[in-house]
Amino acid sequence: EFEEIKNVKLHKSFNFSVNIFKKTIKLLKTLKKINADIYIFRSADIGVAFAVLYIKIFLQKKILYMLAADAEATKKRQKHHNGYLTSLAMQIVYKKANIITAQTQQQSDIFERNRNRKPNAKIKNIYNAENNEQFISYKKNTILWVGRLAEIKNPKLFIKLAERYPNEQFVMIAPIVRDHIEYGNTIQEKAKKINN
């Protein structure tokens, strides 16, 4: 089953509420059925490492892995943010991926220095506020933060800014994700207590 949007097929692989064994089997079947030349991943996760191994060994296809955060650049930071098992599993991804992309030159340099592999390319974030003159003179009504409520995204900083600038209006669009429910609930409760 897939949905097609502008000639791009979006395959549905599994539902997170299903048990791990059913999810894994469904994912592997979907990956095989897609039969892509290159599989693209972007997330430090044990499941990603497992899928990469399956694709490389059984499907014998290519992998493009996109570094999702600066925490992936060093083993120590990744272990802190993603846990020991994920950090260990991601070693496989970094070794087996045919292509690795970084988001910034700094991320690329740190990754190369700490992982002994230079990312093949940089794919920058689409929006760079620092170089956009139109926003300097634009009247600002709100300060927006969009991102999942995970420690690696640092939503606590946004909360601190809202507390520091009580005369500004802050808006947070941030879902609680399954791997960080307790953390997400804590951030959500703190945000509710701030009036602006």
Proportion of strand residues: 15-25%
Distance between the termini: 44 Å
Structural class: alpha/beta
Strand order of the largest sheet: 3-4-5-6
Biggest sheet descriptor = 4 strands, parallel
Work out the helix count: 7
Tell me what you see in this structure:
- The protein is of the alpha/beta class and 196 residues long.
- It has helices spanning 20-34, 46-59, 75-82, 84-96, 105-115, 155-164, 181-192; strands at residues 2-5, 8-11, 38-41, 62-66, 99-102, 121-122, 143-146, 170-173.
- The strands form three sheets. A four-stranded parallel β-sheet has the order 3-4-5-6. The protein has a two-stranded antiparallel sheet with strand order 1-2. The protein has a two-stranded parallel ribbon with strand order 7-8.
- The radius of gyration is 19 Å and the shape is globular.
- 16% of the residues are buried.
- The mean pLDDT is 87.
